[in-house]
Specification:
The chain contains nine helices and 48 strands. The chain is mostly beta strands.
Length: 971
C-alpha cells in the first residue's frame, strides 16, 4: 500500500521538533541533505508557544486545542486554569476571584474529563470536576483539549477532555530553573489582620544520566497568594410602600490567603531501546484561609422618611439591629497521585503498555460563625427610632449615608459577643438545656431561641481512585487500516462527604459580655464602601479555641445535614479498540480512526435519611448519640454502555483540512446527586400547619412538609456528538478554522417531584413522620386566621396536612446543544514587514443549548469571545488578552454545606503581560534570565447577579492583581 506523508517536513515541523527533540532533528539533518538547506529557527516566548500548540492541533486526528511551553516551568500564568481559559471554545469561572473552573463548549468541569498524562485526575472538590487552580503552571509543560473523542481516550466527557501534561525527562532538554514571583492585589485589605501581598517560588530541573537512559525531572513550587473581596448582598427585593427595597442585608469584607505547596517528581528509565519505564509522583498541599466579616440583618423601613418610588428612592432604615458576623474560614486539602507506566516494544510493529496509578485526596472545608451586636436577642436596647441608617436605593443596590445608635460596632468595649437575632430555633430539641429564670425585656424567660451566638460549619471530603490500563498497539496492513490499538482498563473510585455542624452558645448566656481584649486585632475593619462605617475586628476562631462557646452537634438537630453525609463507590471496566486508517479519495489524502468502547459500571452509595424522631432529635431515638439503623441507606446498581467513535481528516489543499467526527460520549452523574442520603423537613410556620388536610388546599396554599433524596441509580449523562471543521494553516504561526458542532443529549439528569403522604411514605416503607408535640400546634390567645380564611379560636388544636413534595433526581431529560467556533491566529507580518513580531489570536464561540424542561446547562454561555494581541521580538514581549463570556448558570456551596444553583452575569476579563528575555542580550551572566510583569483583571471586572427586575442581588468585587516574575535558567 502506498503511504502518503500527510504533514510535510516544512519549517513548522522542523521548528517545533527542534525545540522538543533537538537530538533527533540533528540526526535527521545529518542524514537528510534536503533538511540541511532549511533554516531552523528558535521558537521561544509566546510565538513559540503558539507554534507548538498549532503543530499539535494540526497533527491530531481529533479536533483539539493546545497550550505548550518550551520547557518545564515556562508557562506564563500562576495556574494552568488561567492558560486554559483563553483557548478557543473554553471559558473560565472565577471562584473567590481566581479562575478555577473551566467550561469546554459550554459544559462545566463536572461534564468534561480531566487527565494528567492520559490518566484520570481527581480534585479536592465536592464533585468530579477538577479545580484547575490547584495545579501550578510551574509543574506543567502544556495541555491538550480534545473537543472530539476517539476509542482510546478513556477519560472523556460530553464537553470534551482536558489532558494536562508534565515533562518526560528523556525527551526534554536538561535544565535547572528558578522562578520567583512577587504578587500584589490592586485592592487593599479591608480587614486589618490581612494584607494584599503574596509570593511564589519554584525550582525545576531535568537531568539525564547513564548515556541518556535515565532521566529525572523534579518541580517544587510554593505559593502564597492573597485575595481581598467586597461582597454586597441582599435577601431579595420587594415592594415597600411603593419602593423596591431589600428584605434584608448581607454585605461583607472578605480576605483570604491561598497557600499551596507542590512536588512533582518523574523518573524515566530506558534500559534498552525496547523498554521504557516511567514513575511519576505528584503531591499537593493546599490551604485557603481567611475571614468573612460584615453585617447580616433584616431591613425595616421608616415609611414616613421615604422619598421616591420604584427603583430609585431615599429614606431611613429604622429598628436596625445588625448582626456583625465574623466568619473565619479554613479550607485545607491534599492530593497525592503515584503512577507507573511501562512501554515495551515487542518488535518493529507491535508494542504493549501497562499503566497503573493510585490517587487520593482529602479536604476539610471549615467555616466558623461568630456573632456580635448591641445585645443578646430579647434584651432591652434603645428604641427602634434611635437605631437608624439613612439610605440611597437604586438598581445597583442600597448604599447607606449615615447612621444613629450604632456606634457600638466600632467600640469593642460596647460591642457584645452574642447573637442579637433570634436564630436558635434549630435547638428546639435542647430546650431544657437553655431553661433559665432570667427574664427578657418582654418579661418572659430566655429560651433556646435566644441561645445561638455562632455556628461551626464544616465538611470533610475523601476521594480515592485506582486505575489500571493494559493495551497493545501495532502497525498493520489491513486494507486502509494501518494501525490497531486494543486494550482493557479498570478503575475503582470512592468518594465520601461528612457534613458536620455545631451550634455555639457563649458562656455568658443568658446575659452577654463585650469582646475580650485578647480576641482583638490591631485596627478596625473597613465597611465604608457599603456606607456601614468601621467595625471591630476580632478573631472569630478564638471563642471556639478557648472554650468560650459551648457547642451542640447540629447533625442530631438538622435533618438536612445528616442527609448530606454519604459515600459513593464506583467500579468501571472498559474494553476498547481503535483502528487508524489512511487512504485517498481522488487526490485528497484521508486519515482518521474508528473504534468503540464497551463500558461496564457497578455503582453504590451508602448514607442516611435524616428524620426528626419523637425526642425531637435526628435519627437518635434512643438518645445515645449513634445514628439509628432505620435511617441507614445502601443502594446499588449496574449497567453498561457501547460508545462508538469516528474521526476523519481530509487534506483538501496544502495544509488545509476538513475534519469530521461522530461519537457517543458519557459524563457520569454528579457525585452529590448520586448520594443515597436525604432528609425530611418541616416548616414550623403556624400558617402552613393550619392548611386544611386536602390535596386541593395543598396545591393552592402549600405545605410544611418536604423530602429530598439523592439517586444512586442515576445513569451517566449521554450525548451523540457530531463535529465538522475546516482548518487552514497558512503560516508556521498562523491559521484560521471554523467548526460546527451538535450534541444530541439523549440523557440528562433532571429534578423529579412526587406528592407523597408524610404519615405513610410509600418511598420509605410506609414511614410515618408525624410527631405529636412537634408537628402540631395549639392556637394562641390572639386566635388565627388560616391561609384559606378559616378562623381558629384560641386553644384550637391544629395538625398539618398529610401530603407534601418529595424531590429527587432522575434520568430521562433530553435536549440539544449546537454551536459554532471561529478561530484565527494571524502574524501581522503578513500585512506588512513593519509589523513583524506583532500578532493576534482571536476566537468566537456561539452556543444554543436547549433542554426539554427549559432548565439551563451548567457552565453554558451563549457566547464566548477571546482576543489576544501580542508583540515579540529580540527577547521583548508584550501580550494583552481579553475574554468575554455571556451570562451562565453554575452551582456553588450554599447553606449547611450543600450545593445550590447560581446565575452569573456576563463578565469580561482583561489580562496583560510584558517581559524581557536576556538570552540574546550579550550579557553572559544574564542569558538565563527572564523578567515579566503580569496583571490580571485589569478592568476590575465585578461579578454581579441581578433579579428579574434588574436589581443587583449579589455583587463581588475582587480588584486587579499584579505579579512581578523572575525566571532564571542556570542551563
Amino acid at each position: 500500500m502506498t503511504k502518503k506523508q500527510l504533514f510535510k517536513p516544512a519549517l513548522l515541523t522542523l521548528a517545533v521538533s527542534s525545540a522538543l527533540f533537538p537530538g533527533v532533528i540533528q540526526a535527521q539533518q545529518t542524514d537528510n541533505e534536503e533538511a540541511k538547506d532549511v533554516e531552523v529557527i528558535a521558537v521561544k516566548g509566546i510565538r513559540g508557544s503558539l507554534m507548538r500548540a498549532q503543530a499539535i492541533k494540526m497533527d491530531n486526528s481529533s479536533i483539539v486545542e493546545a497550550i505548550s511551553a518550551e520547557d518545564i516551568g515556562k508557562l506564563p500564568d500562576s495556574s494552568i486554569a488561567e492558560s486554559l481559559a483563553r483557548l478557543p471554545g473554553m471559558a473560565g469561572e472565577r471562584v473567590g476571584g481566581r479562575t478555577s473552573g473551566i467550561s469546554v463548549r459550554g459544559f462545566k468541569e463536572d461534564f468534561i474529563g480531566t487527565s494528567l498524562n492520559g490518566r484520570e485526575l481527581i480534585g479536592i472538590g465536592d464533585n468530579r470536576g477538577v479545580e484547575y487552580d490547584l495545579y501550578p503552571s510551574e509543574i506543567m509543560t502544556g495541555a491538550t483539549i480534545y473537543k472530539t473523542t476517539d476509542a482510546s481516550l478513556l477519560v472523556q466527557g460530553i464537553g470534551g477532555t482536558v489532558d494536562l501534561q508534565t515533562v518526560r525527562p528523556l525527551a526534554a532538554q536538561e535544565t535547572l530553573t528558578f522562578t520567583g514571583v512577587y504578587e500584589m492585589g490592586g485592592n487593599d485589605s479591608d480587614n486589618p489582620e490581612f494584607d494584599n501581598t503574596g509570593k511564589r517560588y519554584a525550582l525545576s530541573f531535568v537531568e539525564k544520566f547513564a548515556d541518556d537512559t535515565v532521566g529525572i525531572a523534579v518541580a517544587l513550587a510554593t505559593t502564597e497568594s492573597p485575595r481581598n473581596e467586597r461582597k454586597y448582598g441582599v435577601w431579595g427585593y420587594g415592594d415597600n410602600n411603593g419602593a423596591s427595597l431589600p428584605f434584608g442585608l448581607d454585605s461583607q469584607a472578605i480576605s483570604r490567603v491561598l497557600e499551596r505547596d507542590t512536588v512533582s517528581a518523574i523518573f524515566q528509565w530506558r534500559p534498552t531501546d525496547n523498554l521504557d519505564i516511567v514513575v511519576d509522583v505528584l503531591s499537593i498541599d493546599y490551604s485557603d484561609s481567611g475571614v468573612i466579616r460584615g453585617f447580616i440583618e433584616p431591613f425595616e423601613l421608616d415609611a414616613s422618611s421615604l422619598n421616591g418610588s420604584g427603583a430609585n428612592s431615599t429614606g431611613t432604615q429604622t429598628n436596625a439591629n445588625p448582626v456583625l458576623r465574623t466568619d473565619p474560614a479554613q479550607k485545607d486539602g491534599e492530593l497525592t497521585t503515584v503512577g507507573l507506566n511501562i512501554d515495551y516494544q515487542l518488535n518493529d510493529e507491535w508494542s504493549v503498555k501497562l499503566d497503573v496509578a493510585d490517587s487520593s485526596s482529602s479536604k476539610r472545608d471549615l467555616r466558623g460563625e461568630s456573632y456580635a451586636g448591641l445585645a443578646r436577642s430579647g434584651a432591652e436596647i434603645a428604641a427602634g427610632d434611635q437605631r437608624t441608617r439613612d439610605f440611597v436605593m437604586g438598581p445597583d443596590g442600597i448604599y447607606f449615608t449615615g447612621s444613629t445608635g450604632l456606634g457600638a460596632f466600632s467600640d469593642p468595649n460596647l460591642l457584645q459577643l452574642t447573637g442579637p437575632q433570634q436564630w436558635g430555633g434549630g435547638m428546639a430539641a435542647l430546650a431544657d438545656q437553655f431553661d433559665t429564670d432570667v427574664l427578657r425585656a418582654d418579661g418572659t424567660p430566655y429560651t433556646f431561641i435566644n441561645a445561638q451566638d455562632g455556628f461551626l460549619n464544616y465538611a470533610d471530603f475523601e476521594e480515592e481512585l485506582t486505575t489500571v490500563r493494559l493495551e497493545t498497539e501495532g502497525f498493520v496492513e489491513w486494507g486502509i487500516v494501518n494501525k490497531v490499538n486494543v486494550g482493557v482498563a479498570y478503575s475503582d473510585r470512592y468518594k465520601s462527604k461528612d457534613n458536620k455542624g455545631f451550634f455555639a452558645t457563649a458562656s455568658s448566656y443568658p446575659n452577654s459580655e463585650s469582646i475580650p481584649s485578647s480576641y482583638l486585632y490591631n485596627g478596625l475593619a473597613d465597611l465604608t464602601w457599603a456606607g456601614m462605617g468601621y467595625v471591630v475586628a476580632y478573631d472569630g476562631f478564638a471563642p471556639y479555641n478557648d472554650g468560650e462557646y459551648e457547642l451542640n452537634d447540629a447533625g442530631l438537630l438538622e435533618p438536612d445535614r445528616l442527609g448530606d453525609t454519604y459515600k459513593v463507590y464506583e467500579e468501571v471496566t472498559t474494553l476498547f479498540a481503535k483502528f487508524d486508517f489512511e487512504t485517498e479519495i481522488g487526490d485528497f489524502p484521508v486519515t482518521g480512526n474508528f473504534g468503540a468502547q464497551y463500558v461496564q459500571t457497578d455503582q453504590r452509595s451508602t448514607g442516611y435519611i435524616g428524620v426528626v424522631g419523637a425526642n425531637f432529635k435526628v435519627c437518635d431515638g434512643d438518645d445515645n448519640g449513634i445514628i439509628d439503623a432505620e435511617c441507614e441507606q445502601d443502594i446499588s446498581d449496574d449497567y453498561n454502555h457501547f460508545l462508538p467513535s469516528l474521526n476523519v481528516s481530509v487534506e483538501v489543499g496544502d495544509n488545509q483540512f476538513v475534519r469530521f467526527a461522530a461519537n457517543k460520549t458519557i459524563s457520569r452523574a454528579r457525585i452529590d446527586q448520586m448520594k443515597a442520603s436525604g432528609f425530611v423537613k418541616f416548616d414550623q410556620n403556624i400558617n402552613l400547619i393550619a392548611i386544611p388536610n386536602t390535596q386541593a388546599a395543598v396545591d393552592e396554599y402549600g405545605t410544611p412538609w418536604s423530602k429530598f433524596q439523592g439517586n444512586p441509580r442515576l445513569r451517566p449523562l449521554e450525548a451523540n456528538n457530531y463535529d465538522l471543521s475546516f482548518e487552514n494553516y497558512f503560516e508556521d504561526e498562523g491559521y484560521v478554522s471554523v467548526a460546527l458542532f451538535y450534541k444530541d443529549l439523549v440523557n440528562w439528569t433532571r429534578d423529579g417531584n412526587l406528592t407523597i403522604d408524610f404519615t405513610n411514605d410509600p418511598t420509605n416503607d410506609g414511614a410515618d413522620y408525624f410527631i405529636p408535640g412537634f408537628h402540631d400546634r395549639t392556637v394562641g390567645a390572639d386566635g388565627l386566621v388560616g391561609p384559606d380564611g378559616t378562623v381558629y379560636a384560641p386553644g384550637t388544636y391544629i395538625t398539618p396536612p398529610d401530603t407534601g413534595t418529595f424531590s429527587f433526581f432522575e434520568d430521562g431529560l433530553t435536549g440539544s446543544v449546537k454551536g459554532a467556533e471561529v478561530t484565527a491566529q494571524i502574524p501581522l507580518r503578513m500585512v506588512s514587514d513593519v509589523l513583524d513580531g506583532f500578532g493576534i489570536a482571536a476566537s468566537y464561540t456561539y452556543i444554543d443549548a436547549t433542554l426539554e424542561d427549559d432548565s439551563p446547562v451548567p457552565g453554558q454561555s451563549e457566547r464566548v469571545t477571546s482576543l489576544t494581541a501580542y508583540y515579540e521580538m529580540n527577547g521583548f514581549e508584550v501580550r494583552v488578552a481579553a475574554t468575554d463570556r455571556g451570562e451562565f448558570f453554575t452551582y456553588q456551596r450554599g447553606g449547611s454545606n450543600k450545593i445550590e444553583g447560581a446565575t452569573r452575569d456576563a463578565v469580561t476579563q482583561v489580562d496583560a503581560q510584558i517581559s524581557y528575555d536576556f538570552e540574546d542580550s550579550g550579557i553572559e551572566y544574564l542569558e538565563g534570565l527572564r523578567i515579566s510583569l503580569q496583571g490580571t483583571n485589569l478592568t476590575d471586572e465585578k461579578e454581579e447577579t441581578r433579579d428579574s427586575n434588574g436589581f443587583v442581588t449579589l455583587r463581588r468585587e475582587f480588584g486587579p492583581s499584579y505579579m512581578l516574575n523572575f525566571n532564571y535558567s542556570f542551563y
